[in-house]
Amino acid sequence: MLTLATITNATIFLIMDREDLDRNFGFLIHDVSRLMRVAFDRRGRDLGLTRSQWWVLTALYAMEGVPQSELADYMDVEKATLGRLIDRLEEKGWVERRPDTIDRRVKRLFLTARVQSLMRALRAVAADLRHDALAGLTIEEHEAFVNALLKVKANLLVMTDSIDEAADD
What pTM, to 2 d.p., does this model score? Predict the structure, then answer.
């Protein structure tokens, strides 16, 4: 039982945090991300893709020519898991592995011409979803929101780099 004598600043912070989780930005980012994925899944269902497949295709669209191991790191998935996904996408003729010109052990990933119409459809679904998700925001609010997220991302990248450097020491 909490008494006035046992309440510390940390306890007050924890109590406030529990009472106001709907305004906790960590929870909000997680919920918004989850809701965006669910909405995208529903809207993209007719394209015949699993969430994992569209996730790989979208990442590859942004990083075409990336080595398979780097894509796994970027997506934060195990290399074997990504390898199986790439195998399935390759069987569909949507992705191809090409040997690196310098190190033939390295496989670089490319989208094929066969998947380009699907990628256009995916991008259209994503654009519509972003538009609908941001409904009611002014252009200024939208820009401020994106700028704030970019600052948070930069802060987290600095923290992550610091942790990685400390682990390397």
Answer: 0.70
